[in-house]
Amino acid sequence: GAVVSQHPSRVICKSGTSVKIECRSLDFQATTMFWYRQFPKQSLMLMATSNEGSKATYEQGVEKDKFLINHASLTLSTLTVTSAHPEDSSFYICSAMLNTEAFFGQGTRLTVV
Amino acid sequence: EDQVTQSPEALRLQEGESSSLNCSYTVSGLRGLFWYRQDPGKGPEFLFTLYSAGEEKEKERLKATLTKKESFLHITAPKPEDSATYLCAVQAMGNNDMRFGAGTRLTVKP
Description:
The complex is a heterodimer.
Chain A: E1 4-7, E2 10-13, E3 19-25, E4 32-38, E5 44-51, E6 57-58, E7 67-73, E8 76-81, E9 90-98, E10 101-104, E11 108-112
Chain B: E1 3-7, E2 10-14, E3 19-26, E4 30-38, E5 45-50, E6 56-59, E7 62-66, E8 70-75, E9 84-92, E10 99-100, E11 104-109
């Protein structure tokens, strides 16, 4: 199947700093990528849809100024958590669509201390 | 609003003890229903896509079925390595994004 690479897999940052997470489709081009957040023992919650060359579409309740999404090329989308706080600690996962199937990255465990 | 409900929340089986996981859904026009496996600390791994009622797909010890209201993931003679969280998701017509259920945490004891 198609491969989606997410980096870093784990990151610890200090409260108030910003963190960037990368999502790459390695063997296909993805005009649309998705960012999810997952709390322990809960399911994936869609945060935003990332569209190449245009602004991301955010789900209700997700602060677009806090979670900055950039989809600058057909193989790369980035999520920047700005001014991170402990409550932003979570597991962030990206996915990219190929035809009708979604392929997921390995996830990024963010811990804000 | 699209909704996905999975049951049970957790399931413990003995090795070789077959069972089924349920995914009930409501969606305004189903484009596809997806099953994923997720191991702790990792992203979901694709298992199956089902598109229409009556469709069935199999892969090793897993078999997925679909009706107009629900999907089942049947696990035949499970092994400890089948232990994981199984996620169900639906995609509505005209949309690319997916809505996920809360998952079923499966534990298979040797």
